[in-house]
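Q: Start with the shorter request: fold the first protein.
A: Done. Sequence, then structure:
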Amino acid sequence: MNIANTAIDETKILDVTLIEPRLKHPTIFEYFDALKPGDSFIIHNDHDPKPVYYQLMGERGNIFSFEYLEKGPEHWYIEIKKNAVDSSTGEPTVGDIAAKDYRKAEVFKKMGIDFCCGGEKSLKEASAEAGIPIEEVENALNAAESATIVDAYDYDKWPIEFLADFIINTHHQYVRDNAEIINNMAVKVSEHHKANHPELPELATKVHYFLQDIQHHLQKEEEILFPNIKNLAAASKNKTKAYKGMVSGPIQMMKMEHEHSGDDLKLFRKLTNNYTLPADACNSYKYLFEKLQEFENDFIKHIHLENNILFPKAEKLENSIAV
């Protein structure tokens, strides 16, 4: 599309070529943050501003569109639009539903509905993505309300610094206790059974890099994000200053990495036919599949606690006190 053939409001154009280099990205972010949901502006540049896209995705998350109106070679015009909020139904997201009642999270888990990395979807969207009629999901959720509570903890009422420590000591520790066991078992099973099951070498390789990535991810949370969350909580209690972005920026990066990890777990299920054991499976083969499923179950709850409870509480606190 050529900008000359497009009817646009010139007052919406930010000419980045006129801005001092060190101020270009901060200015674009100021314009974006000032947008109301559904509004947009256009940036004009003399080269492809793709790095802006990645920075926006990393620091603000998937809440915008990035449409090229003209793609060089001399002029680049991109319309950046903040996604509109669909409030027509007033329905909570699946993440909201799971955060308020973990019995309902168990329903989502059994039905294969992603309430962790896909927690921002509406119930209708998530049901459609899972290929399950929404009426069936709603009936299961209603039944869960009258069921015995499966989780005695009301995580949403915990102080955020306590919840962060709980996640580290429970779920981060689980990863560290089991990563080497699962990795070694995947290699062993692949070596012994790859002749009859050619998918196993790929599974072993993917598991290896997945576990490496997860442990690097935990390190970033423990060294950067979680200490910032605790500092934010302390600032709130002591009525001292906190700065904008101290948790919201890292949170967006962590959520993106959660999504990548969720995709890896889906790939493991695909490679293993949902962990269906073949007729010639030995005890090690069986143990590997059990550990991978156990890891996935822990991961689901782990990411649910972060994406749907800890992170929203931290961002809300940051918005209330940060300057």
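Q: Next, the second protein, separately.
A: Sequence, then structure:
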Amino acid sequence: MALLIEKNGKMSLEELAEQFPDVSDMTLRRDLLQLEKENKVIRVRGGAMSVLEVQKRSGEAYAQKTTINTDAKKAIAKKTAALIDEGVSLFLDGGTTAMYLAKELPDRPCHIFTNGIAVAEELAHKKQPNVVLVGGTLIKENLSTASPYSRVFLENTNFELAIISASAFSFAHGFSCLGQVEADLLKFILDKAKMVYMMLDTSKIDKIMPYTFASPEDIDVLITDDNLPAAVKASFESKNIVVV
């Protein structure tokens, strides 16, 4: 089934049923769930798509996002890369800043879990990191994945460090993102990690997205660009958060 979906790019349940006439719809759905857990396909409404097809269809919007606040994102990525030790086990989210971080990471041994398709593709150019791509439903805005099954997949994994980025931040509403499923996954990640680095370019400050996934008290280090207002920096530092 995985090979058929990879070959065709996308297949509906009806098309899969024609290829596997002796298999019930319930079994087909269960098999797609399993393939998604194994990061071999991405489920969409009525069927499934290959990861390559998702990249082809969604890459344009993602590429456009990578051109916004580029200098700030690259500066944050360089700062973050300098804080990552060799051999660490970490979770890296799928934001565009994370993609720049993937470019900056030295090619040395470490274990990286990510739900970012473009992030994983960038890491694939390096020889030494061990990379695990977490499956789930596609989030088109940042070419990442998230679903309740992502939590099941990660339940028995261990990582010392979570490196997360937010779509928006305000002291009243915390760090927020666009989707509830993504927010639920990030909350789970933050609970598992021993240390949390938050990457936040200053254009996201005083902005609000629908779903809050963290408060300032949930993070250990804030990594930002050089345009952070002094008052905002002081507010974070008053909560014993290291600001880089």
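Q: Describe the second briefly.
A: The longest strand covers residues 161-165. The two ends are 47 Å apart (CA to CA).
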